[in-house]
Backbone:
C-alpha cells in the first residue's frame, strides 16, 4: 500500500508540471481527470473506499466531463494565450516544488500524520493551481487552476480524514462540484456575450 | 429551541426551492414573508443567547454564541430591509423587457426574478449556517455557499460589466476561500495527536475543542494556519490588498444585493477570521494575530482613502467605504481591549448605514440613470426624501455625530490610546479625515445644485423605496444618541470572546 501511495504521489507531481507546460485546454482537462483518478487511488490505499468512489465520480469523471462539454459548446479548441510564457510557468512550478520540500524539512512535521512526500506534493499541487489561475487568461484554464489548487488542499487534508468525517468530505466535494458548475454557467455566458472566453479582455471595470 | 434553530437554517432554503418552482408574483410575496419569519426566529435565538442559554441543534452543528448571534441578527435584519425594498425594485424592473445600458452599450435583459429571489434565500441560508455553527469546516462550507448563491445575484442585469464583475468575484473569492481551507487543515495539524484525533476532527464543537486545548497547539503550525485563514477569509471580507473584487461586484450588482453584500456578507467573512483569532488568543498568540489584523486594517484604511478621494462612481465610492470600515473593524479587534467593544458596535452601525446607502443608491440610479456623481445634481429638489437620507447616510458613514459610527469610531480611538498606540491612532485619524473630505465632496455635489432641466418634474418617491433606508437611518441615529444597556451588554459578551 505504501508503494502504491508513493507512486500516486510521484505521478501527481509529474502531472502538475505537465499541466503547467500544456497550452491546449483539451490536455488540461485530461490531466485534471487523471488527478481525480490519482486522488481516488490514494484514498483507496488509505482505506476510504466510499470517499474514493465519490472522488473518482466527481473529480475523475463529472467535473472533467463538465469542462469538456463547456469547451465543445464554446468551440474553444485553439491554443491558449498564457499571461506569462509557458516556460516561466513550469519554472515557477518547479520553484514551488523546491519551496515545498524546503518547508517540509524546516517545519516541525508529524511523521505519524504525513506519509513521506505527501506534504510537498500537496503544496506543489496547490502552487501549480494558483500559477494556472494567475498565469492563464482563458476562463476555462482558470477554473482548471482552481480545481488543481483544490485537489492540492484535498490531498493535504487526506491524512486527517476518518470514518466520522466522511459526511464533511462529501459536503466539500458537493461544494466544489457546485462551484465548478456555477463557473461553467458563467463561462457559457462569457462565451456568448464576449464571443471569446479570454478574460484578459476584461478591462471595463477600473478606477 | 432545537426546532427554532433548524427552522432558521431550513426556512430560507425551503422558501428558495419553492420560489424557484413558483411564479413571479409568488416570489414577491414569499421573499418578504421568509425574511419576516427568519427575523423573528433570529431575534428569538439572539434573545436566548443573550440570556445565557446555549441553544443547540443537529447534534451541535448549530450552536450560536454571542458573536455569531450578533452577526446572525444583523444579516437577518438587513435581509428584511432588502426584501421589502425588493418588492418595489422587482416591480419597477418588470416594467421594461429590454433595459437601456447606462454606458451606451447594447440594451440588456434581466435574469428571471424568481432566480434572484431564490438565490437571495439561499444566500440567507448560507449566512445562517456561517453565523450559527461552531464547526470550522461547516463555516467554510457556508462561506463558499454565500459565494455560489450570490454570484447569480451580481449577474441579475445581464450586461458585459456585471458578467465581468461576477467572474472576478467567483474566481478571486473561490481561490481565497480555498486558502482558508488550508488554514482549517493546518489548525488540525497543529493539534494533532493520534489519541486526540477523533475528538478533534469528528466533534461538532470544533471551535470549543480548539479553544479549550489551545495551549497544546504547536506554535508554528498555529501561526501558519492563522495566516491562511486571514488571507482566505480576508479576501472575502475585502481587506486590502485582497479587495479587488469588491468595488466591481458592489458597483455592478443590483443595489439591494450590494446592500446585502456590504452589510451582511463581509461580516460573515470577518466572523471566519475572528474564529481563528479566538483560538490564537486562547493559545497565547493573540499578539501575533492581533498584530496582523491591525496591519491589514491600516492598509485597508489607507487604500480606501486613496481610492475614495476623487472617486466619480458613487457605488464604487460606497464599495471603497466598505473597505475602509472593514479596515476599522480589523484595527479595532487587532488592538484589543476596549477597542474590541467599539468594533462590535461599529459592525452593527456600519451594516445598518451601508445597507441604507446602497438602497438609496438604487433610487438615485433609477431617477438619474447614471453612476457618475458628477452627473447627479440637485437631489434635494428632484428626490427630497432620498436626498435628505443620502446626506444623513453620508454623515453617518463618515463618522459624524450624532450617528452611531461616531461613537464606535471614538471608542476604537480611545482603545488605541489605552493600548499605548499613539502612532496608530494618529494614522487612523488622518485616514478618517481624508476619507471624510473625499466623501463630502462627492455627496454634497450630488445633493446640492439646481434641478436638472431634463428631469421629470415629479417629486413622488414610492414608499417602499424610502421606508427601509429611513428605518435603517433612524436606527443608526438612535445608536448614536442612546445605546440600550441590553445591546451594550450583548456587544460586550461578543467582544469578550475575541479579547475585549
Residues:
Amino acid at each position: 500500500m505504501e508503494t502504491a501511495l508513493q507512486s500516486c504521489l510521484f505521478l501527481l507531481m509529474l502531472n502538475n508540471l505537465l499541466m503547467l507546460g500544456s497550452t491546449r485546454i483539451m490536455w488540461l482537462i485530461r490531466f485534471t481527470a487523471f488527478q481525480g483518478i490519482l486522488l481516488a487511488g490514494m484514498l483507496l490505499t488509505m482505506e476510504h473506499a466510499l470517499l474514493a468512489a465519490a472522488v473518482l465520480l466527481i473529480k475523475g469523471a463529472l467535473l472533467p466531463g463538465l469542462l469538456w462539454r463547456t469547451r465543445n459548446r464554446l468551440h474553444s479548441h485553439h491554443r491558449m494565450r498564457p499571461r506569462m510564457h509557458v516556460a516561466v510557468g513550469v519554472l515557477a512550478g518547479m520553484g514551488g516544488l523546491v519551496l515545498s520540500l524546503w518547508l517540509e524539512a524546516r517545519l516541525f512535521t508529524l511523521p505519524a500524520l504525513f506519509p513521506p512526500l505527501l506534504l510537498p506534493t500537496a503544496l506543489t499541487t496547490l502552487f501549480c493551481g494558483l500559477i494556472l489561475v494567475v498565469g492563464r487568461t482563458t476562463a476555462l484554464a482558470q477554473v482548471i487552476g482552481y480545481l488543481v489548487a483544490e485537489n492540492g488542499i484535498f490531498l493535504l487534508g487526506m491524512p486527517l480524514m476518518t470514518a466520522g468525517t466522511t459526511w464533511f468530505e462529501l459536503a466539500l466535494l458537493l461544494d466544489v462540484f457546485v462551484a465548478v458548475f456555477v463557473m461553467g454557467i458563467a463561462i457559457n455566458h462569457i462565451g456568448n456575450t464576449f464571443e471569446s472566453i479570454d478574460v484578459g479582455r476584461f478591462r471595463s471595470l477600473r478606477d | 429551541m432545537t426546532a427554532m434553530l433548524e427552522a432558521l437554517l431550513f426556512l430560507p432554503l425551503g422558501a428558495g426551492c419553492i420560489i424557484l418552482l413558483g411564479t413571479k408574483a409568488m416570489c414577491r410575496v414569499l421573499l418578504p414573508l421568509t425574511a419576516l419569519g427568519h427575523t423573528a426566529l433570529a431575534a428569538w435565538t439572539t434573545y436566548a443567547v443573550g440570556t445565557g442559554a446555549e441553544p443547540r441543534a443537529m447534534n451541535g452543528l448549530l450552536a450560536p454564541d454571542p458573536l455569531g448571534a450578533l452577526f446572525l441578527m444583523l444579516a437577518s435584519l438587513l435581509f428584511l430591509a432588502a426584501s421589502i425594498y425588493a418588492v418595489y425594485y422587482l416591480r419597477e424592473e418588470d416594467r421594461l423587457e429590454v433595459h437601456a445600458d447606462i454606458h451606451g452599450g447594447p440594451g440588456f435583459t434581466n435574469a428571471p426574478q424568481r432566480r434572484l429571489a431564490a438565490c437571495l434565500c439561499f444566500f440567507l441560508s448560507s449566512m445562517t449556517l456561517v453565523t450559527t455553527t461552531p464547526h470550522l469546516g461547516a463555516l467554510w462550507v457556508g462561506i463558499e455557499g454565500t459565494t455560489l448563491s450570490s454570484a447569480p445575484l451580481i449577474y441579475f442585469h445581464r450586461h458585459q460589466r456585471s458578467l465581468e464583475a461576477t467572474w472576478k468575484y467567483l474566481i478571486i473569492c473561490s481561490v481565497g476561500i480555498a486558502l482558508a481551507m488550508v488554514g482549517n487543515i493546518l489548525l488540525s495539524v497543529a493539534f494533532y495527536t493520534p489519541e486526540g484525533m477523533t475528538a478533534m476532527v469528528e466533534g461538532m464543537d470544533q471551535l470549543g475543542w480548539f479553544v479549550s486545548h489551545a495551549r497544546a497547539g504547536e506554535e508554528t503550525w498555529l501561526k501558519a494556519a492563522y495566516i491562511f485563514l486571514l488571507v482566505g477569509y480576508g479576501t472575502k471580507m475585502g481587506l486590502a490588498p485582497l479587495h479587488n473584487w469588491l468595488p466591481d461586484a458592489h458597483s455592478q450588482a443590483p443595489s439591494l444585493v450590494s446592500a446585502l453584500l456590504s452589510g451582511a456578507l463581509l461580516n460573515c467573512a470577518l466572523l471566519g477570521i475572528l474564529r481563528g483569532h479566538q483560538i490564537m488568543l486562547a493559545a497565547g498568540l493573540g499578539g501575533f494575530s492581533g498584530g496582523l489584523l491591525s496591519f491589514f486594517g491600516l492598509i485597508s484604511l489607507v487604500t480606501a482613502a486613496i481610492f475614495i478621494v476623487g472617486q466619480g462612481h458613487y457605488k464604487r465610492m460606497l464599495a471603497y467605504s466598505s473597505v475602509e470600515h472593514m479596515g476599522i473593524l480589523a484595527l479595532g479587534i487587532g488592538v484589543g481591549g476596549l477597542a474590541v467593544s467599539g468594533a462590535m458596535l461599529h459592525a452593527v452601525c456600519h451594516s445598518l448605514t451601508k445597507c441604507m446607502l446602497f438602497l438609496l443608491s438604487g433610487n438615485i440610479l433609477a431617477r438619474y440613470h447614471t453612476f457618475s456623481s458628477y452627473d447627479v445634481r440637485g437631489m434635494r429638489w428632484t428626490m427630497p426624501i432620498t436626498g435628505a437620507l443620502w446626506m444623513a447616510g453620508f454623515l453617518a458613514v463618515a463618522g459624524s455625530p450624532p450617528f452611531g459610527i461616531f461613537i464606535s469610531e471614538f471608542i476604537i480611538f480611545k482603545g488605541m490610546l489605552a493600548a499605548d498606540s499613539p502612532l496608530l491612532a494618529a494614522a487612523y485619524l488622518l485616514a478618517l479625515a481624508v476619507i471624510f473630505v473625499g466623501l463630502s465632496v462627492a455627496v454634497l455635489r450630488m445633493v446640492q445644485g439646481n434641478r436638472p432641466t431634463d428631469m421629470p418634474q415629479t417629486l413622488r418617491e414610492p414608499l417602499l423605496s424610502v421606508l427601509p433606508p429611513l428605518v435603517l437611518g433612524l436606527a443608526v441615529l438612535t445608536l448614536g444618541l442612546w445605546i440600550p444597556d441590553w445591546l451594550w451588554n450583548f456587544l460586550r459578551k461578543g467582544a469578550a470572546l475575541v479579547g475585549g
